[in-house]
Every structure is written in structure tokens, then in C-alpha cells.
Write a structure and sequence with these properties.
By secondary structure, this protein is α/β, with parallel strands linked by helices. Helix content is about 70%, strand content about 15%. A five-stranded mixed β-sheet has the order 1-2-3-4-5, sandwiched between helices. Strand 1 and strand 2 form a beta hairpin. Helix 1 packs across helix 2. The longest helix has about 130 residues.
Length: about 260
């Protein structure tokens, strides 16, 4: 026997609203055990959910606590970093200031040192020029004195040979320009060169060459042949003196040697 539409509606409403009736119907159709298992499963699921939710809440609380602690640590670290940075900045500024002061001191020291060196070099240069000038004056005086001594010696030599000749010193001959001759007598023609010292063979050759040029200039000026060539050397090493003696003999030069060493 079927149910009328009204009875079906009442039946469905009872299933929805009356749990006991719903379970009775489920038991009548063989679903009671299934419903009980589903109910137990739901209870177990709710129990697990509550347990999981409790654990999750605890985890959330613990995590929040840790985040708060970390936040405090970060804030503390930030504060320390700020303090460290401020300290470092001040150190940098102070260090820069000290470097600037040191550099300024060093620059002034260099400038002062440069100034003193310049003054020292200027003074040394003045002293050197003074000493050099004094030495030149002494050398010139000695040379002039030596030239006069040689002139007197040559006059005595010529006198012994029966020749009367007044020797002149430091004569400038106007021939092919000007040539200064240390020892000169026009008639008979006597030409000589005087040097205070000859230190080596090269200087000896230079002295001999100077005498040759003087002889050539004197002969061109007077138109006469040289009767006596004189080379006077105040001092020379022994080997240089031997070299001068050899060259004087070869070229017919009257050699006057002072000190040999």
C-alpha cells in the first residue's frame, strides 16, 4: 500500500526533525549500525579536532610568545647596532679629525723642512762659490807668481847663453783672434806655457797642445821662428813627469819641473 503525498511529506519532516524516529527508521531499514559508526566516527573526529585545535592553539600561543621574544631580541639588537654604529661613526669622525691634524702637521713639517733645505742649499752654494772663488784667486796668484819665477829662470838661462832678453808674462797676441801666452819674448822669439799642476797623461797632453798653439800664434804674429819653447809644470806624478821629459826631448822643449810625487 502506497503513501499519499501528504503522508510522504509528514514522513520526511519527521525524519528531519525527530532524531529518535530517524534512528528507528534507519534501524528498520538496516542502517542503524552504519549510523552508530558514523556517529562514533564524528565524535572521534570532533575529539581529535578539539585535541588538534588545542595543540594548534598552544603552538600558536607558543609561536606568538617566541615571536614576541624574537621581536624583543631584534629590537635589542637594533638598539645595540645603533649604539655600535654611533660609536663607529664618532670613531671615524675622530679618526678623520686626527688624520687631518696629522696631515696638516706633516705638511707643515715638509714645508718647513723644504724651506730649511732650500736655505741650507743656498748657504752651501754661497759657501761653495766663495771657496771656489777663493781657490781660483789663490790659484791665479800662485800661477802668476810661478809665471814670474819661470820668466826670471828663462832670462837667467838665456843670459848664460849670451842672450839678453827681457821675458814678458801673460801676453795677449792679436793673431787670428786673440791668444794669451804665459811666457813671451819677441826677439829672440821665446814662447812658454806655465801650469801649476799636471795630474795625469791627459792633462800633460793638454799642456803640450797649449804650448804648440802658443808657438804657432807667436810665430804668426812675429814672422820669426821660435828659438826657445818652454813648458813649466809646478807638480806632477812621477810617471807623468817621465812622460813629459820624453815628449820634451822629442819636440825640443825646455822642460822645467817642480815637485814630483
Amino acid at each position: 500500500m502506497g503513501l499519499t503525498p501528504e503522508e510522504k511529506r509528514r514522513f520526511l519532516r519527521a525524519l528531519e526533525e525527530d532524531e529518535e524516529f530517524r534512528l528507528a527508521v534507519a534501524g528498520a531499514v538496516g542502517l542503524g549500525e552504519v549510523l552508530r559508526e558514523l556517529r562514533d566516527l564524528r565524535r572521534d573526529s570532533e575529539r581529535r579536532w578539539r585535541r588538534w585545535y588545542k595543540t594548534w592553539k598552544k603552538f600558536q600561543e607558543e609561536n606568538e610568545k617566541r615571536w614576541q621574544e624574537n621581536e624583543k631580541r631584534w629590537q635589542e639588537n637594533e638598539r645595540r647596532w645603533q649604539e655600535w654604529y654611533e660609536t663607529w661613526r664618532k670613531f671615524q669622525e675622530e679618526n678623520e679629525k686626527r688624520w687631518q691634524e696629522w696631515y696638516e702637521t706633516w705638511r707643515k713639517f715638509l714645508e718647513e723642512n723644504e724651506r730649511r733645505w732650500a736655505e741650507h742649499e743656498k748657504l752651501e752654494d754661497q759657501r761653495f762659490k766663495w771657496v771656489q772663488s777663493a781657490l781660483m784667486d789663490i790659484r791665479e796668484a800662485l800661477g802668476r807668481g810661478l809665471e814670474h819665477l819661470v820668466a826670471r829662470a828663462v832670462e837667467d838661462l838665456l843670459r848664460e847663453r849670451g842672450v839678453d832678453c827681457r821675458i814678458r808674462v801673460n801676453v795677449t797676441l792679436p793673431t787670428a783672434g786673440y791668444k794669451e801666452v804665459d811666457i813671451f819674448c819677441p826677439s829672440p822669439l821665446v814662447v812658454g806655457e806655465v801650469t801649476t799642476a799636471v795630474k795625469n797623461i791627459k792633462e800633460a797632453e793638454d799642456a803640450l797642445a797649449q804650448l804648440r798653439r802658443s808657438v804657432e800664434a807667436a810665430e804668426r804674429f812675429t814672422g820669426a821662428a821660435t828659438q826657445l819653447k818652454v813648458l813649466a809644470v809646478g807638480s806632477a806624478p812621477r810617471e807623468v813627469a817621465e812622460y813629459l821629459r820624453k815628449k820634451a826631448e822629442e819636440e825640443g822643449i825646455h822642460l822645467i819641473l817642480g815637485r814630483e810625487y
